[in-house]
Design brief:
Length: 167
């Protein structure tokens, strides 16, 4: 069977999401080698750097907020990891164009619970159009975020940009 069939960005993302960052890094590197002119190469290289920051010799190492790049506007990045004490958290970075409404993050946290997968949604008011925050969550597996604002009624979240699923 041709191994290249299973060396795709989707398979690399699945490896990363399932706690196998080494396999994900290897696939992204081979994609970069095989397709040097591919427009996705910059994204693959960014993902390699992101995964390497979180991976040490024996697994995950502390993920500091500064390790997560602030995206070009408009953009949002959500990365989960562990702090120096081993607690799980998400680092969310964002960049939004100026708006007349205060910016807001809506973050979906996916955690491992005693009954299986549990989710929690948090709304986080932002004080600036770009930056990073750290959100602690017990047994965090993955985080996905959207950046936007509330509608005129102040109840409904209006997303401007969403992150891609990454752990």
């Amino acid at each position: 069977m041709n191994q290249e069939l299973f060396e795709t960005e989707t398979v690399a993302r699945l490896h990363a999401d399932q706690g196998r960052p080494g396999e994900a890094i290897a696939i992204y590197r081979r994609l970069c080698e095989r397709f040097p002119a591919n427009p996705a190469r910059a994204r693959w290289e960014h993902l390699i750097r992101e995964l390497m920051v979180r991976m040490g010799d024996n697994g995950w190492v502390p993920l500091e907020p500064e390790a997560v790049d602030i995206p070009a506007a408009p953009g949002v990045i959500a990365v989960s990891g562990r702090d120096a004490d081993g607690r799980t958290h998400a680092v969310i970075s964002w960049a939004l164009p100026p708006t007349d409404r205060p910016p807001l993050l809506e973050v979906l946290l996916v955690c491992r619970g005693s009954e299986g997968v549990e989710t929690e949604t948090r709304r986080v008011p932002l004080t600036s159009s770009s930056g990073r925050i750290l959100l602690h969550a017990e047994n965090l597996y993955a985080a996905v975020a959207a950046a936007g604002h509330l509608d005129a009624t102040g109840r409904r979240f209006v997303p401007m940009v969403r992150s891609t699923a990454r752990s």
